[in-house]
């Protein structure tokens, strides 16, 4: 009898099996969100970075308040500090493009912020796991079940990932969208549908432009050479649509956003970029060395782009994508450890090469990467505030590992889709 039941289940139409799996996933995710709310979010209010975006969106949708206005900033501060903090200095203000409203709006339907926090942090966990698994598939790595579980857990608990989830940072969304764009463009058979979806995802990923300011021009240059017109058109039309919708919502949003950012840099001590800390705080080498490093890294990046775009051999592509993501955070005028979640796209293929040597080598490097950041945090944290020094080691270590693994990555890269 049971065999017959299994046979009937296995012969169900594929859409029915898919529907059952989706339903099961929704039930399990709902149960996990409920448990996460009761055990964590309701007892430990947090995700402060997300609250700022959420409250700005909620005030706009429910009261029509410009999220960049002083009044909105004041209300956000009151939500965080109650009535203990009335200074309008915008350390907690709406610093995102106006079209971020489209991503956050559904969460404003939930009854309390505890439920919002639970739903959002579960969303980030799901997206991070999905991004990590998609990265493994992108590099054609099919680890054994035990190793897959270890890699996923490691990806979740690595310092940048854990910090991003605890703060409720949108960096996880950008990571997932970026990996999805890579998958749609460079894996599988090219199609107009995949290219259009990739263009939409790339446009949405600009919610944090400081993370995408180098990868976007690389992808567009590659698309021009490969004549992937659907991707280029989709990116342009999607970005244009997001900007038009933003101006329809708040006609002055762009200038308001720039003013908000300017105020932030004037009032708040922004974490110095990695190279500034390296050449001024850690090693007092002077501005000459600082600018030399910037020029060297930018020149190195341009050479790698030129080599990629010059040849029809796309074996360089995957390494160049990972390299560009790392260099972005060495050259960016502002960055943060929670943005380093995108380094998973560089670290996982490096771990794949180490696993080919021996699983103990892989596990040793994973343990070292995991423990070093958490140890540095525990020894430098002051009153729950992250030290600026935390931003320095991981980009440099990731860059070094990526350079050492370059030969193996180029030789074993699966061929990207070509038109």
In short:
By secondary structure, the chain is mostly helical.
What layout of secondary structure does this protein have?
Blueprint (H helix, E strand, L loop, with lengths): L1 H9 L3 H28 L6 H16 L6 H12 L19 H4 L8 H26 L6 H13 L1 H9 L3 H16 L5 H13 L4 H4 L2 H12 L2 H21 L3 H15 L6 H9 L4 H24 L6 H15 L12 H14 L1 H22 L12 H12 L1 H7 L7
Helix pairs in contact: 2-6, 3-4, 6-7, 6-9, 9-10, 10-13, 15-16, 16-17, 17-20, 18-19
Taken in chain order, the helices and strands follow as HHHHHHHHHHHHHHHHHHHHH
Characterize the main sheet. none
The secondary-structure class comes to mainly alpha
Give the averaged pLDDT, no decimals.
89
Shape category: globular
- Unreliable runs, pLDDT <50, ≥5 residues? 415-419
**CA-to-CA gap between the ends?**
51 Å
Q: Portion of residues in helices?
A: over 70%
Number of strands: 0
Structural description of this entry:
The chain has 419 residues and is mostly helical. Helix content is 72%, strand content 0%. It contains 21 helices and no strands. The longest helix has 28 residues, at 14-41. The chain is globular. Residues 415-419 have low confidence and may be disordered.
Can you give keywords for this protein?
mainly alpha; 72% helix; disordered C terminus
